[in-house]
Amino acid sequence: IFSASLDNTIRQWDPYDLACIRVFEEYRSEVSCMTFAGLSKKLVTGHDDGSVRLWDLDTGSTVNLHEPERGHGNTVACVCVVERNGGDEQLVATGGFDGRVAVWDVRKTRHSRPHLMTAWEAHQGSEILSIVAYGGMNG
């Protein structure tokens, strides 16, 4: 179980005794949404500055994804993960208060780094509050 707070921390909780096992500090911007990528064991967070971060739970390191010209110009309100082919394909879809949906390829390989695949204005003039994707999502 993970929780994020206005104190700029993400806390990991033991689901049985409810003890706080780990605390991650966020220094750049407020966490506005998060989800877990099960196969890759990464936490994915959206932020009020339009960025998306991938948290490595083993090391605590992060990869920051932020392309305000093409991605999100302000708060990322929702995030979901699609992992296919045993984790060989890892996509993250985000929705923002700017009405845009963005799809990110979050694989890190020898030949590629996580990056924005595509983004579009899905709800002109209206905030996106929720997003869901399924295994058939294409880039």
Write up what this structure looks like.
By secondary structure, this protein is an all-beta fold. Helix content is 0%, strand content 47%. The protein has strands at residues 2-4, 9-13, 20-25, 31-37, 42-47, 52-56, 62-65, 76-84, 89-96, 100-105, 115-121. The strands form 3 sheets. The protein has a 4-stranded antiparallel sheet with strand order 4-5-6-7, with no helix packed on it. Strands 8-9-10-11 form a 4-stranded antiparallel sheet, with no helix packed on it. Strands 1-2-3 form a 3-stranded antiparallel sheet, with no helix packed on it. Strand 1 (2-4) and strand 2 (9-13) form a beta hairpin. It is globular and about 45 Å long.
Structural classification:
mainly beta
Count all strands and give the number. Answer: 11
Mean pLDDT score:
89
Separation, N- and C-terminal Cα atoms: 30 Å
**Strand arrangement in the largest pleated sheet:** 4-5-6-7
Radius of gyration: 15 Å
Largest β-sheet summary = 4 strands, antiparallel
Strand content: over 45%
What's the SSE pattern? Answer: EEEEEEEEEEE
Q: Runs with pLDDT <50, length 5+?
A: none
Put simply, the count of helices is 0
Give the overall silhouette.
globular
Helix content estimate: under 10%
Question: Brief description of this entry?
Answer:
This protein has strands at residues 2-4, 9-13, 20-25, 31-37, 42-47, 52-56, 62-65, 76-84, 89-96, 100-105, 115-121.
